[in-house]
Amino acid sequence: MNFESFAEALSFFYWGAFVSAIILGVVVNKTNFCTMGAVSDMVNMQDYGRIRAWFLAIAIATLGVTLLEYLSMMNVSTTFPPYRGTQLIFGENLIGGFLFGIGMTLASGCGNKTLIRIGGGNIKSIVVFAVIAVIAYYMLSPLPGTDQTLFSLFFYDWIRPISINLQTQQDIGAMIGGENPATSRLISGLLVSIALLVFIFKSADFRSNKDNIIAGIVVGAVILGGWYLSSNVTIEADDEIYTLSDYYQNWEMIADDDEGKPASGRTLSSQSYTFINPIGQTYGYIKDGFDSALLTFGLLSVFGVILGSFIWSLISRSFRIEWFHDKKDFATHMVGAVLMGFGGVLALGCTIGQGITGVSTLALGSFLTLIAIIFGCALTMKIQYYKMLHEEASFVAALTTALVDMKLLPASMRKLEDM
Question: DSSP state, 204?
Fold first, then answer.
């Protein structure tokens, strides 16, 4: 995908992100692909169908990334965000993922599900979107009148010092393979993908569920497509081939003027779909008067998923306006939105951004985030369950019993009975 001008290359890059996101929105809405729903099915009904669909998306994306990277057809080492960075920010991965898992449960869905619900007419999700957008934006951008971000104000001083500086990139292949990780990445990626596929398809129920299979394959393929697109859009200038990111870095030497120059070069790096930071970018884009220089892959993917979901809701006649049931419902969703805004940026991604896109690079931080998200979500659901059964029970009693159910505390510490 080589172009003669930066403008042509950037346009193709953005249109590719947008159209693929529309497909993602259509399929996720049609099949009810939902991470929170998958965890809920697993925790409350011991139904692993939708969790297998999620794992299928991971397997497809990981297998594709593994093979294409080995064939030098894709770059997932220098990415935005830096999934394979040499600094393992495990505290941010675990705490951010845990907060995000709690938040998506309280807010009735993750970042991607929020976009799907907006496309389907859910006004509650528009409010959730707005709260996430403001929090996510100011986690990375200075608060008005200061040089402090929410991250520097509340997190940096105590959480960044516990990070670990590695000698290699943090993906499994590099950590095992040392200075020549190519073969280790291939073997690791194949083993992870095959193990997932065996687990997924050993279920006869899953094999008979077309929606779950379609969801897993399409979501995984869209993530893979994002990686391929962002790795392979190039510009020929002065008899040399430049990636979008390289062209941006050499702008002063190549371009005649600043017309059409994006506001940031980081967002031109190799990347795939993630939604919390891009939701924050949406706020910045609106706040700064819809400046075209602020358009990004992620921002257009947000619009694309909403549009795709809207299209399917019209086709299926499922478009429904929905508002908060009461003040408690409103407050619960607001707390969830705040936690998703903080947690999603802190962990470098959401259920899609880290749980599929990041994991497809086999980055250790992505696996930690994935585990923390599932744990935060499952624990919150257990607590909600016991508070529903025992309305007078304290939060501590519900929490303790939830941890007993999850085999993290001995049975003798159970405070509440199941029904």
Answer: H
Q: Compute the average pLDDT of residues 118-127.
A: 95
Q: Taking the model in full, what pTM does it have?
A: 0.95
Side-chain-side CA neighbours of residue 134 (13 Å): 10
- Non-local CB neighbours of 126 within 8 Å, separated by 6+ positions: 118
User: Measured between alpha carbons, how far is 189 from 411 in angstroms, rounded to an integer?
Assistant: 38
Q: Write the CB contacts of 410 (distance below 8 Å, at least 6 apart in sequence).
A: 404
d(CA 349, CA 25): 18
What are 23's two structure tokens? 């497909």
With residues binned 3-state (H G I as helix, E B as strand, rest as coil), the percentages for the chain, rounded to 5, are 70, 5, 25
At residue 369's C-alpha, the angle toward residues 197 and 225, to 5°, is 55
Q: Residue 299 in contact with residue 278, Cβ under 8 Å?
A: yes
Residue 88 has a pLDDT of: 96
Report the SS3 class of residue 372.
helix
Whether residue 418 has pLDDT greater than 80 = no
Domain ranges of the chain: 2-413
> Can you read off the two tokens belonging to residue 419?
């029904």
Phi-psi region of 393 (alpha: psi -120 to 50; beta: other; left: phi over 0): beta
pLDDT tier at 177, thresholds 50, 70, 90: confident
* Distance, CA of 358 to CA of 349 (rounded, Å): 8
Closest alpha carbon to 35 in 16, 17, 54: 54
In contact, 122 and 322? CB cutoff 8 Å = yes
C-alpha–C-alpha distance, residues 151 and 98, integer Å: 16
Q: Is the pLDDT of residue 258 over 90?
A: no
